[in-house]
Amino acid sequence: MPTLDDILENVGEFDRFQKQTFFVLCLLSAAFTPVYVGVIFFGFIPEHRCFSPGVAELSQRCGWSLEEQLNHTVPEWGSRGASFGSRCRRYEVDWNATDISCTDPLGSLMGNWSTVPLGPCRDGWVYESPGTSLVTEFNLVCEDSWKLDLFQSSVNAGFFIGSINVGYIADRFGRKFCLLNTILANVVCGILLVFVPTYLWIVIFRFLQGLVSKGCWTAGYILVTEVVGPKYRRTVGILYQTAFSVGLLVFDAIAYAIPHWRWLQLTVTLPSCFFLLYYWCLPESPRWLISQGKNDKAMKIVSDMAKKNQKKMPSHFEDIKFEEEDGGKQSPSLIDLVRTPQMRKNTFILMYNWFTSSVLYQGLIMHMGVAAGNMYLDFLYSALVEFPAAFIIIVTIDHVGRRYPWAAANMVAGAACLVTALIPEDIHWLKVIAACIGRMGITMAFEMVCFVNTELYPTYIRNLGVMVCSSLCDVGGVIVPFIVYRLVEVWHDLPLIVFTVLGLIAGGLVLLLPETKGRVLPETVEDVENFH
Fold it and tell me: Which residues pair with 126 in a beta bridge?
């Protein structure tokens, strides 16, 4: 009995029909960027200080520059504490007093500046920023700085819950149905996010956006790999992820042009409305239709494919009836993932690598947002290195294999994080280069774990295995804001040390996995156990 892959060899594995589908779905992949990494711009943390009544008037009278004003009136200005560049307290003095000296204002008031009492910020903060962010709008600094962590964690919690539920919808009702409904929900949540007035509602809609957006991206990934022939499947999957990297560049440019977070959110959400037009220009997955016994609809799509590709479908394929192979069918179980030694080892190593990839990838982006430099340029440089990462994967996986490039990518990422932490702050350009190398390494690791995961599980449990292991990616996304934003209070580069340890361990563990290059996908647990 011929398969769909046999038919695609005759009607075109990656011709005009598939290229059109691939292009429109790559637009969807690029549009996922603001949801995944938007915190760096939506939650930008500018330099800030406690507002003290009378300081501005005194500064004007004395003719101070901004630096002189900060040095005279802000406690320990320049130390990187809980508020990334300012202290969370202020001097308890009357800056409106008429006898204040312009050369030693605290000494003229108290005699000895070291005895000046400090108090909490009671009148808000002053931000050195040309635009607005969640931080400036809701004063998410000092004792409320954890709320920024929660903002990003909420979307990752949505990813975690939504990927399971949306994955079921895609398998039950179809890829196209899932895609269109999650696009609509994502647009509605994104627009409502712009207009809600309170922090609580922003977190709620951010969570709901995460609930549907990752499932939407995943449904697109599945669809684009199911309409092409097997020779192109892996390359198309990698390039679909590369489209996300293109989205990073576009998002960076838009954020630079629109430094106000609500207008930025609206600008990146409205174009997604056009994705609803996919109802007319995207096909349903013929593989899914065949799995549901809808052979006539599947063959109609295959006929359209042949027509658009200007190929003629052989006559002996025109009336073919696909049959689902039920013989010896096994029911997937969570216990099967850890029942046997090799399956157990594969599961734990893959779970750890999904977790590490998420923590390092998102963590490096977040750490860049609190680093001293041009945020937009640093983001641009680090996004550009994702393209050579994809190229290296495409070149090496079928020649060198999976295991060694994957392990090297993790180790390079970990070592680069260590080097970045040890480079002094005044050599910022070198820190950026080291961080970009780390970003390239973890991008390679992230893209490789996506498809190697499918190659290490037998057919009957493959989807469940990928779902369970990749859920650790979202767990990592939930905790990484707390790792970054809390540890920088202790030492600005301490998160990088944590990333180093995680990356090096991940690289070492990958070497314990079997090589899957040139192997037939396993059908049973026994096949997996005999991989070595």
Answer: 49
